[in-house]
Amino acid sequence: MRPVQQSIKILYYANKSEEPFVEIVTVKQQNKRRPSVCSSADSESDDLLPVLIDHSQILNEHHLEQLMNHIPVRTQGYSWKLVYSTAQHGTSLTTLYRQMRELDRPVLMVIKDTDNQVFGAFSSDPFKVSSYCYGTGETFLYSFSPEFQIFRWSGENSYFVRGFLDSLQMGGGGGPFGLWLDSDLYRGSSYSCSTFCNRPLSLHHDFTVRDLEVWTFV
């Protein structure tokens, strides 16, 4: 049953000495989140799934249910639009940057490796080449390998994201990166880092990318 919201509506005053006549108006509280493309009218839980404007090679309803509960509130209730996909755009970090050149909103990276493990990162800023680290404390790493876990900012440093022409780095602190990808978006690695205090996102520290997608919220 959906929660209800009550509001008090004063209809009139009988006279100056009497209490006003009051009516309790009950209004159904609207769910601000949009239904999933695969939702049914009878499924209450499906209402919480986002609309995917484009087809995903990786994400299923289980992934969406978990991720939807952890992305920042300001990105919830929006449809998800595919900005970059290795299946559509080829395997190139340069192309990934180019696809986000005009973007000014958060992005969600989703990776599926050759072990069929799904993991990735939410970035408060679109990925770009930069001479410095960028991003905010909204940035996090996550993994479904073997069960869903999310690794938020530890507060120890601000090495959220840094983009080079030959690699993309997330997390750090005097050692390996929480998530690292090469220029071909083919080889990657994931180690524990002080930025997110994460465990390795993949089954192995070094992994090979099968599919990679980056989504934004519109």
Mean pLDDT reading: 84
Assess the beta-strand content as a share of residues: 25-35%
Distance between the termini: 29 Å
Tell me about the largest β-sheet.
10 strands, antiparallel
Unreliably modeled segments? 1-46
Protein structure class: mainly beta
Number of domains: 1
* String of helices and strands: EEHEHHEEEEEEEEE
> What is the global morphology?
globular
User: Whole-number radius of gyration?
Assistant: 22 Å
Q: Write down how many β-strands occur, each being a DSSP E stretch of 2 or more residues.
A: 12
Helix content: under 10%
The helix count comes to 3
Task: Give a quick summary of the entry.
This protein has 218 residues and is mainly beta. It has helices at 61-68, 86-89, 93-99; strands at residues 4-12, 21-28, 80-85, 107-113, 118-123, 140-143, 149-151, 161-163, 167-170, 179-182, 187-189, 206-217.
